[in-house]
Sequence to fold (242 residues):
Amino acid sequence: MSGHSKFANIKHKKEKNDAAKGKIFTIIGREIAVAVKEGGPDPANNSKLRDVIAKAKANNMPNDTIDRGIKKAAGDANSVNYVANIYEGYGPSGTAIIVNCLTDNKNRTASNVRNAFTKGGGNVGTTGCVSYMFDEKGQIIVAKEDYETTADDLMMMALDAGAEDFSEEEDSYEIITTPDDFSAVREALEAAGVPMASAEVTMIPQNYVTLTDEEDIKKITRILDMLDEDDDVQAVYHNWDE
Fold:
């Protein structure tokens, strides 16, 4: 795990998001809409919605914006239905990239994703071509600067709640769960007052690829930037060691 500071990556993402809050709010708004349609508007009876609300608050989304999103999804039978699509492909030097989308126009999204890969010298592959290189896990990051406790105390709290693994980084703690146990562990930590820098179900690379060629780095950066700018793209996972 060393060499991959999760908290540094999260701070980097948050800085990007702070510069373009509209993008992250759009992403979370769509996740709220999907969660409400799947499980109803009451967070008490919808664990997926509770998780999205926690993600929204971690990204400083105002409560009234969250409430409006829930009410809109619950009250408008004609609201947009988003379809989930996952694209897998390769960046330069065999780097693996997974793109999760929520879209109301699959053709537009497919075209945009393919264009991003092509512009960066990569290509979209078939389903399953790179996902086997990743593990789907719940991942919770607690920044040491936000939480004063011993590693042992936090580890025992997490493991007692059902966590699968715990590791200590230079600037943070990482808690790993199965996707099924993620909500229970997150809620147990939240109830105990543990501030979470990030909490989500994600795709974690089994191995990382280091790029040394400047041209390769430019190419993969272009792919990731183009995907990041696309409103249909919810999340991008890759195994490039940035």
